[in-house]
């Protein structure tokens, strides 16, 4: 049976169609989920895409966390549903307290858009099982509020529990503490990543196809779970 991956659209989402295409290329069915609809329609996993949900009013992700679909996602994530937040989706996950810390203005106060080197630090999450330990990949980053911040205790917990999923290499584009590009919850089913794997799934349009592994990883995870 083909896996069904929900892709949420908020007002202001920009990369929902790109995420849906990446899901399709990975071999799954992309199921559109609307922000105002609490129903998840039996999806096997959920992606919160990049963009500017609700115009980033108040702060990035702050309003999206109160949407009807997020109430359902928070409950389902607690029951083990794989959830991936990309860029603005990462911000939403932090605002919804599915992940710790916060994404703040880039340290240099400039929007950063470039192909970015990452190192996969944890390949045991639902979204990274297809990578090798410490594998280096290149995917685009494009954000103005991508600087990951957390207090010392939270950073120690993330490092000590192996919950830093990916780290920036060959330059930190936004000043994130510990060069953090992606983190997970304790169970490993919820992952937030600031760079955009959905923009590195085809040779024609991306700097690599390194991002496709994020989407095939969750399919491998779902297959193993079944």
Can I get a quick summary?
This protein is α/β, with parallel strands linked by helices. It has helices spanning 16-26, 68-78, 88-95, 152-160, 212-225, and strands at 4-9, 29-34, 45-48, 83-86, 102-104, 112-120, 136-143, 147-149, 164-169, 180-184, 190-193. It is globular and about 40 Å long.
Q: Tell me how many strands there are.
A: 11
The outline comes out as globular
Overall SS class: alpha/beta
Helix content: 10-25%
Taking all Cα atoms into account, the compactness measure Rg is 16 Å
How confident is the prediction overall: mean pLDDT? Answer: 95
Sheet with the most strands? 9 strands, mixed
Strand content: 25-35%
- Please trace the helix and strand order, writing H or E for each element: EHEEHEHEEEEHEEEH
End-to-end Cα distance: 11 Å
Strand order in the largest sheet:
2-1-3-4-11-10-9-6-7
Q: What is the number of helical segments per DSSP (H or I, 4+ residues)?
A: 5
Uncertain regions spanning at least 5 consecutive residues: none
